[in-house]
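User: Can you write out an input/output pair for a complex, sequences first and structure second?

Assistant: Here is one pair. Inputs:
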Amino acid sequence: MEQQSIFETTSQYIQNTLSPSKNTDALTVDTPLIQSGVLDSLTLFKLITFVQKSFGVKIKSNEITLENFATIGAIEALVLSKQQG
Amino acid sequence: MTIPETCDVVVIGGGPGGSLAATYLAQSGYHVVLLEKQKHPRYAVGESLIPDFWKYCDEAGVSEQIMAENFIVKAGGIVEWDGASKLLSFEEWEDKRSALHVERDRFDEILFKNAGVKGAKLFENTSVDRIDFAQEEQTVFYRSTKTDDSGAIRCRYVVDASGQNAVIGRHLELRKMDSDFRFMSIWGYFQNSDYLTTTGEIHPAADVATVAPTTYITNLPELGDWGWAWHIMLRKQTSVGLIVPIEATKQIRQESGSWQEFFLNQCACLPMLDRLLTPATFVPDSVRLVRNYSYRSSQIAGPGYFLIGDAAGFIDPIFSIGVVLSMYSAYMAAWAIDGCLQEREQESHYQEIYSSQVEGRLDLAKALALPGYDQIAADNQQTQMIAKLASDQSQKLMQSASLVTARPHNFDALLPTK
C-alpha cells in the first residue's frame, strides 16, 4: 500500500536521521511533530528535502505550513494530494 | 595557500553566519572559499546567546569545542521595564542546554577555524571589492588588506555574510533603512562589575564562574517606549550598552560633549545599572557606536546570491537573537544552495523558500522588538505562518519575552489563538 509506505518511510527517517536523541519511538500518524519540537526550524527543512526526493514531489514555499507538517498524517496527505494532482 | 580560481560557493565574511554557512556547504561536499576581511581573533559585539544556538553548532560539529572553552553560562534574563522587574529563566523552560555570554573574538574564531577543519578554504585579510553577476557564473574580485595582491574567483553562488558592510546589498542597492528604527547603539566595557542572579541577588564579579549571572536589560524611561540598556557579564569584563533613539541623542549629546561622556552619564542615570557598576572601573577608550542602526534588504536572494545574517537585515537584538538569526539564515542559505546546485532549473523555487522563511523570521524578531507593531504583524500572513511553525515551547518563550517588555499585543496579533 502506497499510503503505508509514505508513513513508514517518513517516520523511519524522522526516527533514525532527524531525532535520534529525542523520544520518537512511538511516532504515529497523529504525533505532533512541530508543536512538540520533534521537528524544529532546522530539521523541518531536512525533512522537506527528504520528502521531495523520496516521493518525487515539489513542496512550494506557501505549502510550508503548520497544517501541512503538523503530523506524519498531514505530510502523507500533502504528498498524496501532490502525487494525484 | 593561494586563493583558487574557481569554486562552487564563495562566502564573504567569517563571522558566525559566514563560518557556519561555509561549514554546512563543505560538509555537503561542495568546494567553498571563505573570504574574511580581518584576521581572527577579532572584536565583535553581541555577546549574549540564547540556547537555540546549540543546534546550529551541533550541525557544524563544533559544540564540544564551545563547551570546552568554558564560556560564562547565563541563567536567564532580568528585564526591568517601566520600573517592574521580571525574570526570564531558561530553567523554567526545561532547556537542558545553556545560554551563554561569550567573548565574540574567541567564539567567532572557534566557528571560523571549524569551517576550515570541515573542508572550507579560509582566507583572512582579504576584502571583496565587487562582484560581477552573470547567468551561470559569478566573479568575485578580492584584494589583500595587507599586500597589493588582488584577484578574482569564479563561482556558482555567493553568500554575503559581510555583516553591516553588506557588500552585495550596497553593490545592488538593496539596502533600505528601517524607518521604524531611528536608533543608534552605544556601548563600552567595564571591569569588576557586580551582577544579578535569577533570584535578584547582587554578586561580585569574582563569583561569575560559580554563580550563574543573568543578562540584565532595562528600558530607558526618560526616552519613551523605545530605548533600552544591556549588562552582560563576560569572563574578565562586562559589556554594557544602550540603544537610544537618534532624536534623543542630539539634544542630550549637546549637553554632554563626547560620546564617552554621554554613555557614562546615561549609565549613571539608570539606578540598577548604576548600582551594579558601583565597584567597576571603566575600560578606557572602550566606547563604540553604531548609527543608522536598523535596515533591511529589499531582496535577500537573487540570481547567484544569498544574503545572510546582518547583511540581510539588522534588527533590534533585544532578546539576544542577533547571532541565532544569523545562524538560522546560514543554515537556510546552505539548504537552499544545496537544492539549487542539485537541481539547477529549480533555483527560483529554492530562493523563494529561502526568502519567505528568512524574511518571516526577521519580521517575527521585529514584532517582538518593536512597540506598536501589532497591526503590521496581524496583516502579515507570512510572519504568522512562520510563528506557527515554532514549537509550543518556543512560542511560550516568545510570549513571555513580549510580556516582560509590556508588548504582548504584538505577540497576540501574530498568534491570536494562543
